[in-house]
Amino acid sequence: MNTIAIIGAGNGGFALAAHLSSMGACVNLYDLYPQYIEGIKNSKEITLILNKEKSIQRINNATSNIREAIEGAELIMVVTPAFTHKQIAKEIAPFLSEDQKIVLNPGRTAGAVNFLEELKINGCSAEVIIGEAQTLIYSCRKLDNTSVEIFEIKKQVDIGVIPINRTDELLNVINEYFSQFVAVSNTLVTSLSNIGSMFHPLPVLLNLGWVENKNYNFKHYWEGISPSVAKMIETLDRERIGVAQAYGIKILDTKEWLKKSYSVRGDDLYELLQSNNAYKEILAPTSIDTRYLLEDVPTGLVPISELGRIIKVPTPNIDATIILASSLYDKDFIEEGRNLKKLNLFNKEDVIKTFEYGV
Q1: Which residues are paired to 75 by β-bridges?
Q2: Residue-range domains of the chain with CATH
Q3: What is the pTM of this model?
Q4: Distances (CA, A) of 279 to 48, 139, 264
């Protein structure tokens, strides 16, 4: 029985822990904050609702001790917002062993590159393998501190690996449980396939009045993304696709991705979102303290813009979204986010090499 460590006890972490346990894995669930695992720390049981059926799944351990969580784990699944990756890398660095495999679920944009850099900064000398998932495999919600519901499991999740010559080693392990994970050529592909950066920030910014309305909590996709909002998302999406093309990479646009991931139908982005039952019950944020902006702008839109800047591909609408979000929080997300200057990346060749083999 393989031991798998899950880092993060939020929606995705709970879902992964329970689902992997149902498939026979030995699961250690970790969260830095004890309150997130308090409900299962003693019982070590998670109530899983999948396909409308309820089951009790027992995990091996629920802990706030990172060393205890990852010791002996062949696979480490990081399921936390991307803005915590730096902190997770710092905590995990002293305890990693040779050949352990880490997957960021998801990595957002430049996640694997940044995670590996932080490991080295914090003294990790072990040769580890870093996987960057393009998205979280589930549409799910943690119902309370002991239960989680999985609404949908995606049909395919692309994954890039650093270093690229060890891709098969990671896939051989993760495919034991999830055949949906499919390798792509490198983490530049998964980084530029960051769909959350398209679907999250702009709709929140364009619906701030409703986000801050205390009398009504609207549905993010089904109500927040109107035909006009969907049209504006497609404008951002064309810029993202343009950046990828300049690097010689073919990626899916948002419409193609929805069709492939959820088997939905529609003539345009709005219709596809409206026909996606997996998004039906997802509510919009109720304040501006939301990862839809605080995660998806600095770890999504900023590095996409940066990747475009390096190869002189303009991204005016992405840049405008970054500026609006920066103004909202009185921050400089370009400086604070994953800008590529921090990695000393200044040309196309260096970018490709780094996204294949790390820094």
Answers
A1: 4, 101
A2: 3-187 (3.40.50.720), 192-357 (1.10.1040.10)
A3: 0.94
A4: 19, 8, 11
Q: What span, in angstroms and rounded, lies between the C-alpha atoms of 342 and 103?
A: 22
Rg of the chain in Å (alpha carbons): 19
Q: How crowded is residue 43: how many other Cβ atoms within 10 Å of its Cβ?
A: 12
Catalytic annotation on 296? yes
Task: Give SS3 for 317.
Answer: helix
pLDDT in tens, 237-261: 999 999 999 999 999 999 999 999 8
Cα 20 to Cα 3: distance, rounded to the nearest angstrom: 10
Quick one: pLDDT band at residue 2, thresholds 50, 70, 90? confident
> Residues 31, 158, 237, 296: which is the catalytic one?
296
Considering the candidates 19, 85, 158, 200, report the single residue annotated as catalytic. Answer: 200
Two tokens, residue 143:
């119902």
Q: Are strands 26-30 and 61-63 parallel, antiparallel or unpaired?
A: parallel
